[in-house]
Amino acid sequence: MRRRWTARVALAAGLAAALVLVVVGGFGSLLLMAVGWAGLAATAAAVWWMLTRTGWIRMLAVLLAVAAPLGVLFLYTSAGLLWVVLVSLGLWALAVATGRAALAPDRPEGMPEHSADRPRRPFLIMNPRSGGGKVGRFRLAERARDLGAEVVVLDPDRPQDVADLARQAVQDGADLLGVAGGDGTQALVAGVAVEHDVPFMVISAGTRNHFAMDLGLDRKDPATCLDALTDGVELRVDLGHITMGDPEAADPYRPESPSPEGRPERVFVNSASFGVYAEVVQSPAYRDDKVRTILEMLPDLLTHDSGPRLGLSAGALAMAGPQAVLVSNNPYERGDLAGLGRRERLDSGELGVLGILVGNAAEAAELLLHGGQGRGLTVGTAHEVVVAADVPVIPVGVDGEALQLPTPVRCRLAPRALRVRVPRNRPGVPRSSPPMDWRRVRRLALTMGRAAAGRDGT
After folding, report:
1. What is the pLDDT of residues 237-271, one digit of tens each?
2. Cβ atoms 203, 184 nearer than 8 A
3. CB 432 within 8 A of CB 333
4. Cβ neighbours of residue 360 under 8 Å, at least 6 residues apart?
5. Helix, strand, coil % (nearest 5) of the chain?
6. 327-378 pLDDT, tens per residue?
């Protein structure tokens, strides 16, 4: 009943948005709305030219990106219809928000929890610099030791191999491995936990804590993650693997485990990125001046004047020459901008695949006008993803770490291979609304009786 009435509110708000324009502003307001869409398209095209051109063309693009929206606002104000357009847009935003809320399931199914005994010899690795010093600020090492854990706090001035530390701890009798650090460190130790079939514990002491968020952990107070040592449950989640192409190629990074074919592998808990982003972050100048480095490198990378030319193969999906590819451990949500960085499940057994191939300003504008959907964006899922290139080695960002890997690069999942120990009481995974579908909203709003839920369930 709640979902049906929410869908009805969505339909009413959408109808009201159109009526406000026609009744209050007359048909001239519809023309101004068309001008607004044209201004938005011009702005998107200008941003594309700004990113892909240099010199005087970039300067003109900047001027257009500023002038287009200002010109639209001037026309609305001159016609005395600015308030009408703003009210209409507000009603339309309400319609979309309530429509998506109506489509969201009442009780999304979470990942199964399994009972777990209290670990006898937990071993935790903590990075004091991670997250701006959260380990020290929240006294994580002291609190963990008070709970009986052995804790190694890394020395920032003396790099240590965290995978070696974890392996040695297991040999010494550790029955749980944990990390307070970034997602890259989490992945390395998670790989060791899978090798030895011991549970793994995540402490949200990193900067972004994507993995911790998708496990439903508290990212504001990492100390609450330590409750998993005394009152924890176990989740079985997937773990991503990257197989490096040529087993004879030199690999400057230590492999975490051999693939079934005997080739070196790395593991990832979040994602592996290829193309523009991976190229930019590996530039020596990126750390010193991020904005300038991006503006200098993007024109050549987006127009394929520099950098490797990639090829993507993921089951039925195939792309030639994408500018960027993201392969994730389970697909990311795409219902809204907030959902782009999170996954509601980590145990689906499928990789998420996102490829971007934008060839001109029109395609860039299409992506913007259609809310991130268009010819330039390919999204899907697969059990295996292969990224090839016209060079033997390509840059890859693996859980935020910049690597150079031999091609072709193969990504796969080990379904439910990682045993993750989490607190029994935790915030949970934030819900994200599904993409707007006006047909489903209309069907839900107009359906009467008990048949509504069944008909909308597909």
Report:
1. 999 999 875 544 433 333 344 444 445 689 999 99
2. no
3. yes
4. 48
5. 45, 25, 35
6. 999 998 765 444 456 788 899 999 999 888 877 666 666 665 555 555 667 8
Decide if 331 contacts 381 (C-beta within 8 A). yes
Burial of 107 (0-12, 13-18, 19+ CB in 10 A): exposed
CA dihedral in degrees (402, 404, 407, 411; nearest 10)? -30
Phi first, then psi: what are they for 227, rounded to 5°?
-60, -20
Asked if 241 and 413 count as a contact pair (C-beta separation under 8 A), the reply is yes
Q: How far apart are CA 322 and CA 92, in angstroms?
A: 34
Cβ neighbour number for residue 375 with a 10 Å cutoff: 13
Residues, the chain, total? Answer: 458
DSSP per residue, 130-195? GGGTHHHHTTHHHHHHHTT-EEEE--TTS---HHHHHHHHHHTT-SEEEEES-HHHHHHHHHHHHH
Q: Which amino acid is at 37?
A: W
Report which DSSP code applies to 314: E
- Please give the single-letter amino acid code of residue 192: V
In this predicted structure, what is the pLDDT of residue 301? 57
Residue 9, number of CB atoms within 10 A of its CB: 17
Tokens of 43: 């702005």
